[in-house]
Design a protein that fits this description.
The protein is built from 8 helices and 9 strands. By secondary structure, it is of the alpha/beta class. A 7-stranded parallel beta sheet has the order 3-2-1-4-6-8-9, sandwiched between helices. It is globular, with a radius of gyration of 18 Å. It binds nicotinamide-adenine-dinucleotide (NAD). InterPro entries: KR_dom, NAD(P)-bd_dom_sf, Sc_DH/Rdtase_CS, SDR_fam.
Length: about 260
């Protein structure tokens, strides 16, 4: 359990869900972890829970809004002061904005892009100069299977997630000569509060849940820990030649042909 020993990782949106699972897995593998999260209390609680559960864990909670470049820069500086230069960044913070394109408000459009795409760029921009200078770094952007497939009624979330893949590939190519790797993970349905909120927002939450579970070939949805395991791999020295790439974690759902 020392695959990330000596590394400093910053995970956005780490207060709960997939981000919290990644922060926990990173700490268990020996990384010092900064939980950069909008909900400061959730970040503190998760950091405490990791510190209590993982022997020798080094964690720091920093209230952070990924939509604000100065806030993200402050989190990176706090990480540097506490543990040293950030070598791993996980841009995980994200929100669902699902609307009808023509009735959606301008505010919904801006809110979606501010978190789901600008937030990823703000993270990259805050860590890249130092990673480039040190010629070492792994950035992991949490995209979605919505980055490849469109589900009607989910606009504009998939547009932002397509952008995350574009940003991942562009930055991966730009900084490959500097030994900085930029990759994405595209989860399918993963059971988090976000998923429960979506089910609960449907006219028949039970039917929505059942439909979600019926669709994938494995007849289940994923667990946050299953995404975290891949994040550990991409953050580690086991993936030195994986760059500008995306790993899908959906139990095969996007490969399934629907009649
Ligand atoms: N759950 C899924 O099925 C699923 C599937 C595919 C992709 N994803 C993606 O995975 C990521 C995490 O999703 P989740 O299901 O764990 O969501 P979640 O809502 O459970 O957790 C997201 C966390 O991000 C934080 N956050 C939101 N806005 C922020 C901001 N401006 N600055 C900093 N933190 C902010 C929230 O407070 C929350 O703690 C998101 O990017 C999401 O789009 C989730």
């Amino acid at each position: 359990m020392n695959r990330l020993t000596g590394k400093v990782a910053l995970v956005t949106g780490a207060g709960r869900g997939i981000g919290a699972a990644i922060a926990r897995a990173f700490a268990a593998e020996g990384a010092a972890v900064v939980l950069a999260e909008l909900d400061g209390a959730a970040a503190e609680a998760t950091a405490r829970e990791i510190a209590n559960g993982v022997r020798g864990a080094q964690t720091l909670a920093v209230q952070t809004d990924v939509t604000q470049p100065a806030s993200v820069r402050a989190a990176v500086e706090a990480a540097q002061r506490a543990f040293g230069p950030v070598g791993v960044l996980v841009n995980n913070a994200g929100i669902n904005v699902f609307a009808d394109p023509l009735t959606m408000t301008d505010d919904d459009w801006r809110r979606c892009f501010a978190v789901d795409l600008d937030g990823v760029w703000n993270g990259c921009r805050a860590v890249l100069p130092d990673m480039v200078q040190r010629r070492a770094g792994s950035i992991i952007n949490i995209a979605s299977t919505h980055a490849f497939q469109i589900i009607p009624g989910c606009f504009p979330y998939p547009v932002a997630k397509h952008g995350v893949i574009g940003l991942t590939r562009a930055l991966g190519i730009e900084y490959a000569p500097n030994n900085v790797r930029v990759n994405a993970i595209a989860p399918g349905y993963i059971e988090t509060q976000l998923t429960h909120d979506w089910w609960n927002a449907q006219p028949d939450p039970q039917a929505a849940r059942k439909a979600t579970l019926d669709l994938p070939p494995m007849k289940r949805i994923g667990r946050p820990e299953e995404v975290a395991m891949t994040a550990v791999f991409l953050a580690s020295d086991e993936a030195p030649f994986i760059n500008a790439s995306c790993i899908t974690i959906d139990g095969g759902r996007t490969a399934l042909h629907h009649e």
